[in-house]
Design goal:
It is a single chain. β6 (about 80-85) and β7 form a beta hairpin. The protein has helices at about 115-125, 145-150, 190-195; strands spanning about 10-20, 30-40, 45-50, 55-65, 70-75, 80-85, 90-100, 105-110, 155-160, 165-170, 175-180, 185, 200. The longest helix has 11 residues, at about 115-125. It is mainly β. About 10% of the residues lie in helices and about 45% in strands. The protein starts with 8 loop residues before the first strand and ends with a strand. It folds into two domains: about 10-125, PH-domain like, CATH 2.30.29; about 145-200, no CATH class. The structure holds zinc ion. The site of zinc ion has 8 residues, from loops.
Length: about 200
């Protein structure tokens, strides 16, 4: 794994991850677990798979840019990290996590660090790139609602045109009317900021 300019290692863990290899038979899905190194830098999370039985080597298996990580959740199978890959959503489970001493490349004994890793990822990735919830548009106010809010007893004598001051019947429904004299459009929601257009009884 070669670091990019400005990239630095934040933390490393020994762990196992889900890996895919060419199925050996029809019954074999190809998926299995492999040991390796999970490397967190200031830019990305990378899994390096252990290779070689006799001589320790590492193969770059996958990388997730921190800004593309959408969740990091701890569950009984380990730490599930999901991110948006280049072409599709990706995910992996990391378990048996163990802190790694970067100088000796040996485990330091701490185990089950999934919870801590999830917290670190949340802090490092800007609490994940979840899209903001869609804003709910304000309900369109209708005249009937205005009437119920303005005069609980329904005691409204009329509606005054803001342009020509003609007084017309207060609409019983709908959310807009046109003044019969000057054709000015009057919307029910305008009455929230223009309550003086409501002619009350008495
Ligand atoms: Zn008018």
């Amino acid at each position: 794994m070669s670091l990019r300019p400005g990239e630095r290692i934040v933390r490393m863990w020994k762990c196992r991850a889900d890996v895919y290899s060419e199925p050996a038979s029809d019954e074999d899905s190809g998926w299995g677990k492999s040991g390796g190194l999970l490397v967190l830098t200031n830019l990305r999370l990378t899994f390096l798979q252990n290779t070689g039985l006799l001589k320790r080597g590492y193969l770059h298996y996958h990388s997730a840019e921190l800004g593309s990580i959408t969740t990091a959740t701890v569950h009984k199978h380990g730490l599930l990290v999901e991110w948006m890959g280049k072409y599709r959503p990706e995910k992996n489970n990391y378990d048996k996590m163990e802190d790694l001493d970067a100088r000796t490349m040996e485990g330091t004994g701490g185990t089950d660090l999934q919870r801590a890793a999830a917290d670190i990822l949340a802090a490092r990735s800007g609490a994940f790139a979840a899209p903001p919830p869609l804003a709910t548009p304000p309900p369109v106010l209708d005249f009937n609602t205005v009437m119920r809010m303005a005069a609980p007893g329904g005691r409204i004598a009329g509606l005054r045109c803001p342009k020509c001051s003609n007084v017309m019947q207060f609409p019983a429904y709908g959310n807009e009317v046109w003044c019969p004299f000057c054709q000015t459009n009057i919307r029910a929601e305008q009455l929230q900021t223009w309550p003086q257009l409501i002619i009350r009884e008495g």
